[in-house]
Design a protein that fits this description.
Its main location: endoplasmic reticulum. It is built from 19 helices and eleven strands. By secondary structure, the chain is of the alpha+beta class.
Length: 510
């Protein structure tokens, strides 16, 4: 009996042959991928050919033009040069039509196109598929289920809770400025708006503004937002496997885990509270339920297909959107008033005549401060909390000027560019509250701080009430001035932020 054994030479020859075949297969795959990307680029070039734009690099697109600190200034240059809309190439095989014309906005927001899956899916590990990311019938079901949580009967008692949270923050500011009048306000405001949403929508007792766990949550959200923008702009991070193996990907996972720990704790505490028979009956007798109670009762009664995963996604979504966008709005409004003392003083006089010392502020008061409301809206025009949202066209679209796009193209509704469009708002960089005076005539889609159409912000009335409460109570307590040495640098992240914070000088009013 003989045994055949491969000689070392034949073995090496076999390995070499396998490597040769593998190399050929890899080369073929790379060529096929290159051909696919080339054909996609040619299709995209043809799709947006009716919309001129500055020259772009075949691989890096317009990324080199959009330096981190200059992105908003670049938007404004494009708005002035290219009417209505302009293609922005993120890289060679990805383009988004940036829209900043009210007629264009009206057409897109009047449709039911889904969110742009290409970018928004990067948020899913953090906020899951709640109202922000859902599309189609599932989105409609969740929206219809949650709309009662924002009925005015529910919102009315929240004004007192909002005021309590604002006063805690203002008390803290009084202590801090006793040592130095210069203060970075955005971090304090983020904690205050988180405190408010925890009380109003999630039945939280007490204040979270001094809780280290809440501060960890705020930092985690800040990290996730920064990492999201970094990933969107990096060609190599588009692949999930590659991204999660990178240091940024692992950092993203840790930040998401911290955010989830916070929301899981909120859900667990509320569930435990509802297990008490007396509390459960009290909640059942309420004609209108709070946000979290609506979700928990839908889950308990099995009246919908709401899973535990869906529940957590909605909580994660609203925990973020309910505090972060509002914090951005309040921070920039106070900055705008600080840089325009004449308008600040006029608002203060209006509020003083209405509220006195501000010991009591009610729902009805919030509709009796017209000039303050005009200033708030003008600040939201200059500094929209959500700079842009994305859509993916589910069918072809034709705009009022006759230009069209095919199905599948990504559209970016750029609210910042719209609000700074000189053809829509003359002298757009000037702070002019009279733009929003009663009876002023403007396009229905010229001012969109809360988006528009069927997918507008579900919490916009809640947010406007909170903005008014925060501004009114702050102006009654402090005189605000800008810090000339630390002017904010606006950055269009998921929400409009300042790269270096928002620094003000505060003087306590007697």
């Amino acid at each position: 009996m003989s045994v055949s054994v491969l000689s070392p030479t034949r073995l090496l020859g076999s390995i070499s042959g396998l490597l040769h075949v593998a190399s050929l297969l890899l080369l073929v795959l790379l060529l096929l991928k290159a051909a696919q990307l080339y054909l996609l680029r040619q299709w995209l070039l043809k799709a947006v050919q009716e919309f001129p734009s500055p020259p772009s690099h075949w691989l890096f697109g317009h990324n080199q033009e959009f330096q981190t600190d200059q992105e908003l200034q670049q938007f404004q240059k494009w708005v002035e040069k290219f009417p209505c809309a302009c293609p922005r190439w993120l890289w060679g095989s990805r383009v988004s039509l940036m829209v900043y014309d009210p007629d264009y906005m009206k057409v897109v927001l009047g449709r039911s196109d889904p969110k742009n899956h290409g970018s928004y899916r990067f948020l899913a590990p953090w906020i899951g598929y709640g109202l922000l990311l859902l599309n189609g019938q599932t989105w409609f079901q969740h929206r219809r289920m949650l709309t009662p949580a924002f009925h005015y009967d529910i919102l009315k008692p929240y004004v007192g809770l909002m005021a309590d949270s604002v006063r805690v923050m203002l008390d803290k500011w009084e202590e801090l400025i006793s040592q130095d009048s210069h203060l970075e306000i955005s971090e304090h405001i983020s904690l205050m708006t988180l405190d408010t949403i925890m009380k109003c929508a999630f039945s939280q007792k007490g204040s979270v503004q001094t809780d280290s766990k809440s501060q960890s949550y705020i930092q985690a959200i800040r990290d996730v937002k920064t990492l999201f923008i970094s990933r969107v702009r990096n060609f190599f991070y588009q692949n999930d496997i590659i991204y999660w193996l990178t240091p940024e990907g692992r950092w993203n996972q840790r930040a998401c885990q911290l955010a989830h720990q916070h929301t899981d704790r909120v859900i667990k505490l509320r569930k435990a509270h509802l297990q008490e028979e007396e509390e459960l009956e009290k909640v059942r007798r309420k004609r209108n339920l709070d946000f979290l109670d609506i979700l928990l009762f839908a889950r308990m009664k099995n009246e919908s297909s709401l899973s535990d995963k869906d529940l957590r996604a909605e909580v994660d979504t609203f925990m973020f959107e309910g505090h972060d966008t509002t914090a951005s709005g309040i921070s920039w409004i106070l900055y705008a008033l600080a840089t325009h003392p004449e308008h600040q003083q006029r608002c203060r006089k209006e509020i003083q005549s209405l509220l006195g010392d501000g010991a009591s502020i009610t729902w009805d008061h919030l509709d009796q401060m017209p000039y303050t409301t005009m200033c708030i809206k003008e600040a939201l025009r200059l500094y929209p909390p959500v700079p842009a949202v994305g859509r993916e066209l589910s069918k072809p679209i034709t705009f009022p000027d006759g230009r069209s796009l095919p199905r599948g193209i990504h559209v970016s509704l750029n609210f910042y560019a719209l609000h700074h469009n000189p053809k829509v708002w003359p002298n757009p960089e000037v702070f002019d509250p009279s733009r929003f005076a009663p009876g002023s005539d403007s396009h229905s889609h010229a001012f969109l701080p809360f988006s528009g159409g069927s997918r507008n912000c579900i919490g916009k009335h809640f947010a406007m009430k909170e903005l008014k409460v925060a501004v009114a109570l702050t102006l009654l307590r402090f005189e605000l001035a800008a810090d000339p040495l630390q002017a904010p640098i606006p950055l269009p992240n998921i929400v409009l932020e300042s790269k270096n914070g928002i620094h003000l000088k505060l003087r306590k009013l007697l």
